[in-house]
Each structure stands twice: as structure tokens, then as C-alpha cells.
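Meet our chain:
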Amino acid sequence: MLDSDEAGLRQLVESLGQPAYRARQIWRQLYQRGEVDPLAMSDLPSEFRQQLARASLTPEPPLEIQTSDDGSTSKALIPLGDGEMIETVLIRSAPRDTVCLSSQAGCAMGCVFCATGLQGLRRQLTTGEIMRQAILARGWAREEGRELTHVVFMGMGEPLANYASVSEAIARLTDAEGFGMSPRRITVSTVGVPPGIRRLAADHPRVNLAVSLHAPDVKLRRELVPVPGASLDDILSAVREHNRMTGGRVTFEYVLLQGVNDSRAQARRLADRIKGLRTHVNLIPLNPSPGVVGERPSRRATLRFQQILQECGIPATVRVEQGRDIAAACGQLRGDRVRPTA
């Protein structure tokens, strides 16, 4: 049922001999209560619940859930109907509870420091598979007496390479009769897909955008983020357009690798590159993982890079890390169970 929009649900209930308004009841069960088992949808007639259960598949529970020692982060390995697996992370940082959603099983972008990139792209996720993650995470938060406050598309995969499913998921997340989340509390993170950046600005102007930059020059970025058909200039031009179309600020994510992209000169070049854009830089010291290229920089080097950006007039922060003891970076848990694609 999660893969059906409202029109699809209406068609389903009418095919089972029920009035169309039952579709709205199911919608609210799914996205307000988080109930995915038809047999537990208590405001539906018992016989109809039995019909729904026979006509639809109830999603399987997570294969594995790991929680960090300090309780701040939980990571789930979620099975899909065809045997694929994805990861979802709930980050607890009072007063926020944030879910990190995957948009693809694997990823084709090939970033050299990313565990998911080592696995290759297996397939796109459907809207229902994306929403299942959000529903699970909100359920965990509610079990602990809290509420899910933020959604970030920063898990496995490139969201803008699966635009249709991600866009529909955003629509359901922000539906007042559904999940009911403000678009200002949703962030889409991309390695830089210019057509997708422009499309997101047009379709969802209040949703936040984060762009994974990772290098101040073309040559180094191609080595670190070997995405075909998107030059650094193209990406920055799309960000400039996003600024203009939405009036919002874009976050640049920058993974710091020791001796690769963390020098003083590179900090100054980065500041020159993005000067004039409404932006903020989020510095992320590399999270080491088996097979991932690079070393984590020292704390001193990280703070030095931040200071140079700030001195150049660029707002910059260092990401507060959580979940390192459970390999919470995207793709690490799944990578223990699957082989990379050829």
C-alpha cells in the first residue's frame, strides 16, 4: 500500500467493494499513525481489514538494529521485497530527532570515501520504500516519548538520480493530512546533479538543499567524486540559480581527508569559489571504513580549515559526529552483507 498514491488507494478500495472514503482512512493510518499492517487498522471494518491483508504485502521488520553506546544513534538494516537491503539511521540530538533516509539500494556515484559507493548501484527505491523508512523512524521516536522532527535524504544513494520517487516522498512527508512535516525540516543532499537541483528548486522551493562539494578545484573533485557530466562550474551555477529561485541558503558539505583536501591553500580556494553565494559550509572529518580511501585529519587541521573559511567571510561549522561506534555512516552496515557490483 505504501507504493500507492491516494488515487491508487481509491482504486484498490473500490476494487474490494468499499466506498472511496476508505482510501483516506488508510492514508491516515499509514502516514499519521504509522500503521502498515492492515489487520491493525482499527477504524476499518474487520472484514475489510482481512481483504486488505490478502491484497497487499506487509513490509518486513528490520533485519538488524544497532544503537550507539550513548544511545544517540540507531541504525537499521531494512530488507526489501526482492532481497535487497537498505540502511536507515535515527539521530537523537535534543530537541531534534532526525531520520537519515536512503533513496537507492547502493549508489552509482562512486565517491572514493563513501562505503555505499563501493557497492555500486543495485536499483532505485520506490516511494513506498522511502516512506517505510520514515514511518519506522517516527515509530522508534514515539516509542521513546518523542517525535520525529527532521528528515534528511543523506543515506544510501543519490536522491536527485531517483527524482520521481524522492519528489513524491517529499509530497507525502509534507501532506497536512499525511505525515504533516514542514518542508523547512527536510533536506535533500546531492553530489551535484544540476538539472535535479533546478527541478527541486521549482517543485519544492521550501525544502533545504545540501551539495557535497569536497574539493575547491575541478581536477581534485573529479578524483574524489567521479560523477560524469557535471562540472564544478555547472554545479555552482545551479546552486546560484537555486539561491535565486528559492531565496534560501544552500549547505556545502565538505569531507576532509588528511593531506588531500585539507590544506590552508585549499580552504582559501574554496572560499573564493563559493564567495557571493548564500551558503554555509559543513565540514565533515572523514569517517574511516574498510575499503574507503583516505585518512581522517587531525582536530587541529579541521579547526584551521574552518577558521580560514570564516576569516574569508564564509559561515562554516564542523559536523557533530554521532554513531561512529556502530558504523553509522551510510552503507557501512549493509556493506558487511553484500558484495560490490561489478
Remarks:
- The longest helix spans residues 127-143.
- The CA atoms of residues 280 and 315 lie 5 Å apart.
- The two ends are 33 Å apart (CA to CA).
